[in-house]
Amino acid sequence: MTTISKKRKFVADGVFFAEINEFFAHQLAEDGYSGVEVRVTPARTEIIVRATHTQEVLGEKGRRIRELTSLIQKRFKFGENTVELYAERVQNRGLCAVAQCESLRYKLLAGLAVRRACYGVLRFIMESGAKGCEVVVSGKLRAARAKSMKFTDGFMIHSGQPANDFIDSAVRHVLLRQGVLGIKVKIMLGTDPTGKAGPIMTLPDAVTIIEPKPEEPVYEPRSEEIGKPQVAPVEPSQNLEGYQQQEDEVQIQQAQY
């Protein structure tokens, strides 16, 4: 058994990932391919393909995914039953830059106007819950001279480590009659505690405003007579009638004596 250094192993893993990613990008472009994940276990190698249309990736009765498995097995000289392919549906394709880039690419190939296609993608991304979005189309758009058009919406960061954590970007090329167009889509994800629609962490400059505690009502000052029951106040007219009744009772008692 030959040993391999860590440096060569990392390089070999990176080359393997880049090659299968390029292979799937060409083969599954029309099926909404958005990425691949490789899991190596002692028994076998698992390759998870993420796409928006998983049924087309699987094919009729799993025929297409078996063909892809056979091609990868022959290309990388895997042993029998040592590599498995799985198809996973993208949870929210509106927050996937690769899926939206491919969608815009096919809209332009169908002959849709650049401005209309870009605004449609922009609106769909923002309605899916993105914090911000940027779409750039470069090339010969109308005239013979090349130019670029940029469409933005929402909030977008461009530098620092948060740009690596919160920004999902993708680049694609469209071959049209007048030349090649370049498409770049950047999506700013929001914070998601579950980790499904964005990173769990928050932006370093995010300000959290804590709601103040409810204030207790302030009552009028009073003596602390805990044991004595509170007597209801008597109106002045009722008070005078009580005094008159007491005087009459005293006079009757004196007359009896």
Automatic annotation (TrEMBL):
Protein name: 40S ribosomal protein S3
A biological-process GO annotation: ribosomal small subunit export from nucleus
Residue ranges of every copy of the KH type-2 domain listed in the record: 20-91
Similarity section: Belongs to the universal ribosomal protein uS3 family.
Signal peptide residue numbers: none
Entry keywords, A to Z: Ribonucleoprotein, Ribosomal protein, RNA-binding
A GO CC term assigned to this protein in UniProt: preribosome, small subunit precursor
Species of the source: Neolecta irregularis (strain DAH-3)
An example molecular function term from Gene Ontology annotations: structural constituent of ribosome
Ranges for region Disordered: 213-257
Ranges annotated as spanning the membrane: none
InterPro entries: KH_dom-like_a/b, KH_dom_type_2, KH_sf_prok-type, Ribosomal_S3_C_sf, Ribosomal_uS3, Ribosomal_uS3_C, Ribosomal_uS3_CS, Ribosomal_uS3_euk/arc
Biased composition regions of type Basic and acidic residues, renumbered to the chain: 213-227
SUPFAM superfamilies to which the protein is assigned, alphabetical: Prokaryotic type KH domain (KH-domain type II) (SSF54814), Ribosomal protein S3 C-terminal domain (SSF54821)
